[in-house]
Amino acid sequence: MDKFEKITGIAAPLPLVNVDTDMIIPKQFLKTIKRTGLGVNLFDEMRYDQDGNEIPDFVLNKPQYRDAEVLIAGDNFGCGSSREHAPWAIKDFGIRCVVAPSFADIFYNNCFKNGILPITLPQEQVDVLMQDAEKGANARMIVDLEAQTITTSDGDTMSFEIDQFKKHCLLEGLDDIGLTFEKVAAIDTFEEKMAQERPWV
Description:
This protein has helices at 21-24, 44-47, 85-93, 105-112, 123-133, 164-172, 176-182, 184-197; strands at residues 6-14, 70-73, 97-100, 117-120, 140-144, 149-151, 157-159. By secondary structure, the protein is an alpha/beta fold. The longest helix is centred in the last third of the chain and has 14 residues, at 184-197.
């Protein structure tokens, strides 16, 4: 998994509440088990019309936000089904950080397992970031996981809280498999000891 340490990137404003996982990646795109290739269908029903043409007014179709790495979103982001394809699509598009007043629990945890930093902030702070993101590509935000800060394009800095274990996993690029590999030496030692003490098992 890619490490997340610090990004300086364009933030896209998506001031919608209750954005569910079917809005993030509709069900017809769940046929794959690959974590790549879903970015083109991120927010598919909001990005494209029935003929497959881009809807110009949707934020990620606007030229200034096509390379967005941060998404500033509304309350209860990622609600609905538990599909892990939702964070896969977000990351495949290039977004590494989502900021919202609240997240659905499963989506929130799936973000950490896929190298995305979800940040929960009070509504008034999200409003400040939303206004900053609305300035477009010239307004770049700095998200520093080590320092646990977000710096706006105007230089204002706000802090965020994060579970220290999840922070460690993102900084080191560790998903569940990576965490297991971290313990390989201890697992091997345990297996050798068990083989000596209980060889009949």
